[in-house]
Amino acid sequence: MSMDIKQIQDLIKFVSKSGVNEVSIEEKDFKITIKTQEPTYVTAAIPAVAPIAAPVAAPAASTPAAPVAVENDESHLITIKSPMIGTFYRSPGPDKASFVNVGDDVTPGKVICIVEAMKLFNEIESEVSGKIVKMLVNDAQPVEYDQPLFLVDPR
Predict the structure, then answer these.
(1) Mean pLDDT in the chain?
(2) Which residues have a Cβ under 8 Å from the Cβ of 149 and sit 6 or more positions away?
(3) Strand pairing class (120-125; 40-45)
(4) Which of 2, 3, 45, 135 has its CA 20 to 30 A from that of 97?
């Protein structure tokens, strides 16, 4: 038996999500052992926040009687972005409450989510004060560096 890198990656993901501490597979010419540990939490501050551009409303191309949709003005909102590549988590654990929800107030230093990267669980803190108005990422979704995570109405 021999495994390709994709199969090994899938096995690692499965083991990490299953809650098992160790898995070993051994054949006569192949052996793999995957061990997991308790999560290590690291606090990381979000490097920068930038206001998002206001959406541009396209002219209505339908009949004159059709109502024109009014876009919400989001130009005053601040975007909180991911400071790293990893997996986004809304809560500290599967059976725990979310750090923040839409409508919650945040202040600088308040933990708003976790981004897990290489088995390090990095607590992401807000650098702004305001109210969470939109969550842009789903729980357990992979995120890229600088990917928008939340929209905040500043105070």
Answers:
(1) 77
(2) 80, 81, 82, 88, 112, 113, 124, 135, 136, 137, 143
(3) parallel
(4) 45
Pairwise CA distance, residues 77 & 75, whole Å: 6
Helix, coil or strand: residue 49: strand
Lookup: tokens for 45 = 């501050």
Total count of residues recorded for the chain: 155
Helix (H) or strand (E) holding 8: helix 5-18
Residue 75 to residue 104: CA distance in whole angstroms: 20
Question: Rounded to whole angstroms, how far apart are CA atoms 101 and 49?
Answer: 19
Q: Looking up tokens 């005053």, which residue turns up?
A: 76
The alpha carbon of residue 87 and the mean position of all alpha carbons in its chain are separated, in whole angstroms, by: 6
pLDDT tens readout for residues 75-103: 789 999 999 999 999 999 889 999 999 99
What whole-number distance in Å separates Cα of residue 127 and Cα of residue 49? 8
Whether this model's pTM surpasses 0.70: no
Q: Where are the domains of the chain?
A: 5-35, 40-53+68-154
